[in-house]
Each structure stands twice: as structure tokens, then as C-alpha cells.
Amino acid sequence: MDKLLIFGRRPLKGEVTISGAKNATLPIMASTLLAQGIHTLKRIPQLRDVFTMVELIRRMGGKIDFKEGMCRIDTTKINKFEASYDLVKTMRASILVLGPLVARFGKAKVSLPGGCAIGARPVNLHINGLEKMGAKISLEEGYIIAKAQRLKGAKIYFDIPTVTGTENLMMAATLAKGITVIENCAKEPEVVDLANYLISMGAKIKGAGTSIIEIEGVDELIPPESYEVIPDRIEASTFMAIAGACGGDIILKGCKTEHLEAVISKMKDAGLVFKETSDGLRVIGPQKLQAVDIKTMPYPGFPTDMQAQFMTMMSIANGTSVIKETIFENRFMHVAELRRMGADITVEGNTA
Q1: pLDDT one-digit tens code per residue, 13-34
Q2: 235 and 281 inside one domain
Q3: How many domains does the chain have?
Q4: Dist CA 89 CA 93 (whole Å)
Q5: 116 tagged catalytic
Q6: What is the domain extent for residue 311?
Q7: 29 and 131 inside one domain
Q8: Are 187 and 298 spatial neighbours (Cβ–Cβ below 8 Å)?
Q9: Which of the following is catalytic: 71, 116, 185, 246?
Q10: Does 114 have pLDDT greater than 60?
Q11: pTM of full prediction above 0.85
């Protein structure tokens, strides 16, 4: 698709079913490497990153059937333990196979990540954690080489919360000998969803969704009959911003409001109206938006992945809003495009 033609100045009305969360789908797909057998995952979004993860697992020897939001992954014959640069460069989440491969097979070769240009996102937190669990790790020609007999439980503290770091080490710890405690870990719903999938396979995990997660390693994990991924809170929030920007009236089917509290609070301050329905949430945009300040924070704060959409909505609001980005550097790349459309935006450091 070369371009999209959008004819604006008309309110959008109707209903939409929220897709499965990409940021839960990718680690859950990676976690299938921990357990031999067939994994059946439901509500899987059809996105480029998901297809990249499909290809990554196929190259390792996995068999995958993907149809109508359902993905069947057979990890019985995994025989390669490498995530090559040509795939990893397009998707940073490829690093998530590192922990599962080392935990189950005792070896992994994973290219250093590429992906979206929104900051450095170093992987040293993943590496340091695996080393504390007994893995021998080296960096060779742009690849992380990890080896271990069997990982051992350890106490791990993150200097800063990291979503993928929490997920990688939590997955690795499920097959480690002994108890692993991860402190100052990420609290995102996607981390909790991954933990729930691991638990459904027989993992022993406590504290997911809090700052301290405790994992007691087991000898083997077994795939459950099936598992449904949580709905995407960023997709739901984006439709809220659309309703707000155009004065629309949209019903979001299947979303989880408990994952959206920070966004809904700021949307209400901007003038949007929310009404819960039997199977979702109705969002009604105001005739005129009111300016609101936001500061991106780790969950349960305002999500950085909604910063651009909220800024776009605020560009047509009454008054001046201040938006502060605290999660990633270089995440105001959309500002230049909004200015081309007439938005009055000034950027100073991490504040717009």
C-alpha cells in the first residue's frame, strides 16, 4: 500500500471489535519454545511483527498454522536455536526467544535487536539477568551467544523497569532449578498475560502485575488446550482518540476497561464521554476538545504508545496542552508531520 486517502471533517460512528494485544502475542508466541507440543492461541492479530515471529519460529523447526485469528504452533521438532539478523533487525521483540531457548535447549544465538527508531532500548538487562542465572554469554559479530547446562534460580534487580527484560527472564526462570526473584519489574497487563499463559502450562509464578515476581522452576511445561490473548489496550485507546478528534460515537467491543484507566481519565478531562455496554465500551467525542497535559509513565501510568495519538487529538483542542515523554528519547518524530498539517507544536527536549 503506497498511500491512504482520508476524507475528513465527518464524525465516525459504529462499532469495532478490539484485536488481540500485539505486545502480549509476541512474548506468548516466544514462550511456546519452552514446551514441546502443540500450542493453540486465539485472538492473534494479523500484524507484520506477528508474521515475523511466525517466520522466526518456523526457521527454528516449528510448524505453524495461522488462520482467522487462531495460531497453532507445534514446537515438537525445534532443531535450530538462532534468530538471524535479517529477522531481528525488523522486530526488536525477537530478543524474546533468547530466554526460552537457553532455558529449554541450553543454547541460543540471537542477533542484537533492530526495530523501530524510538530509542536505544539496551538489552544489557536481559544479558545480566541470564548471567546471574548461570548462563555463559558472549557477543560475537553482532550476535548474543548464550550457553548453559541448566539455569539456576537467582535474585535479579532491574535498575529501571523493562517489559521485554521482565518477560525474557520470567520465561527463562520457569525451567530453572530453584527460585528466581525479579525486583523492580514491569507491571504491564501484557506481562501478566504472559505469566498467565506460562501458569497454564504448569509454571509456578507469583506476583505478576506487581514490582516483584517470584518464579519456582519446574522440570517440564505442557501446552494447555488453548489460550486467548488479552485485547489490545493501545488499539482501544487509539479508537478513543479517533472518537475524540472527530466528535464520533464508537462502541469498542471486547476491550478491558481495567487496562485503560489512565487513558480514560485523561480522555474524560478532554471532554469525552464513556458508557459501558454489555460487551464493551461506548466512546462519545465532544463538540470541542479541551486541552489536557499528560506525562508518559510505565503502567499503570499513561502509556508512551498513546503519546502520538493523544498529541494529535490535542492539536485541535481548546487551549494549550503540555506533553512530556519520559519513557523513550526521540519519540516526537510525528511532530514534523503534524506541523505540516497546521498544528502549532513546540518541542524542547522531552516536552512538547
Answers
A1: 999 999 999 999 999 999 999 9
A2: yes
A3: 2
A4: 10
A5: yes
A6: 13-18+231-340
A7: yes
A8: yes
A9: 116
A10: no
A11: yes
